[in-house]
Amino acid sequence: MKKNTLAKTAEEFDRRFDEGGDIADLVYISKAVIKCGGKKVRLTIDVSEPLVREIDDIRMKIGVDRGALVKIWLYERVKQEKGVR
């Protein structure tokens, strides 16, 4: 697999992302911080095994645990639905 060269500017990084380029090795997901204060509440969901396997394939590829990936996706979707960037 060819390793991506680092983006020289934020604009170049944004362009690659917007064009659907592979940016997985340009981002340190393990260091990502979601700033969403407040008391933590446990959320329990039931999902099918095939969906969990697909989620696990993605999380292993980018190197994060399942819970972190799902939290990031939920956070991004809530922001999208609210129209916040």
How would you describe the overall organization of this protein?
About 45% of the residues lie in helices and about 0% in strands. The protein folds into two domains: about 1-30, no CATH class; about 35-85, Met repressor-like (Arc Repressor Mutant, Orthogonal Bundle). The protein is an all-alpha fold and about 80 residues long. It starts with 9 loop residues before the first helix and ends with a helix. The protein is globular. The model has no long low-confidence stretch (mean pLDDT about 80). It has three helices and no strands.
Core attributes:
single chain; 3 helices; 85 residues; Arc Repressor Mutant; mainly alpha; globular
Give the SSE layout:
Elements: H1 10-18, H2 49-62, H3 66-82
Biggest sheet layout: none
Specify the overall morphology: globular
Q: Might you state the CATH topology name of the largest domain? A: Arc Repressor Mutant
Mean pLDDT: 82
Tell me what the CATH architecture of the largest domain is: Orthogonal Bundle
Supply the CATH superfamily name of the largest domain: Met repressor-like
Give the count of structural domains.
Answer: 2
Question: In what range is the share of β-strand residues?
Answer: under 5%
Quick structural gist:
This protein is 47% helix and 0% strand. It is built from three helices and no strands.
